[in-house]
Design a protein that fits this description.
The chain is of the alpha+beta class. The protein has helices at residues 69-82, 112-126; strands spanning 9-10, 15-20, 24-30, 34-40, 45-51, 91-96, 130-136, 142-147, 152-156, 163-164. A five-stranded mixed β-sheet has the order 1-3-8-9-10, with no helix packed on it. 42% of the residues are buried.
Length: 165
């Protein structure tokens, strides 16, 4: 069952949303950002975080918790639990974290995608949430759709075959 974009719940950049089956979450244009889909397979309560940066503790004015991997994941888990998800059943799928500019550099500040993916994995581990699958890295953007009915995470990229993880 495919849905059209206008039937989907859109998650903006530095944003997070939750939903229940049969709703679908989508976020457009993940470059170095990471789209983290969380899922309770029993209640079919889902959440999607579109985080831009790895670590909220590096910034003084970080009122938007969804901008960061660490605070965004904590907030998403909290919202999902308040909607009836069980934290012990949550599983994750992630996509994004691309290196969008062609640079061979060891300068960490320019390797945002890689750092975002590492921060997401670290936070998932701290929260004891199992990472089921990922489509991260390389040098292209991704648009994702997360289907709360099935737990399918569909990744679309220009010039690439559609992928379900």
């Amino acid at each position: 069952m495919r849905m059209y974009l206008n039937d989907m719940i859109k998650v903006g950049m530095a944003d997070l949303k939750t939903c229940k089956s049969p709703e679908v979450l989508t976020t457009l244009g993940l470059g170095s950002c990471v789209g983290v889909a969380l899922y309770d397979p029993v209640t079919k309560i889902s959440g999607l975080l579109h985080c831009m940066l790895p670590d909220s503790t590096q910034f003084r004015n970080n009122s938007n918790v969804a901008k960061f991997a660490d605070s965004g994941l904590e907030e998403l888990v909290k919202e999902m639990i308040s909607n009836g998800a069980n934290k012990n059943r949550l599983v994750a799928k992630i996509a994004g974290g691309a290196q969008m500019f062609a640079m061979n550099t060891s300068n960490d500040t320019l390797r945002v995608g890689e750092r975002n993916v590492a921060a997401v994995k670290q936070k998932l581990s701290e929260l004891n949430i199992r990472l089921l699958s990922e489509d991260c890295g390389l040098n292209y953007g991704r648009t994702v759709e997360f289907y709360s009915e099935t737990g399918d995470y569909i990744i679309k990229s220009v010039g690439k075959p559609e992928k379900t993880i």
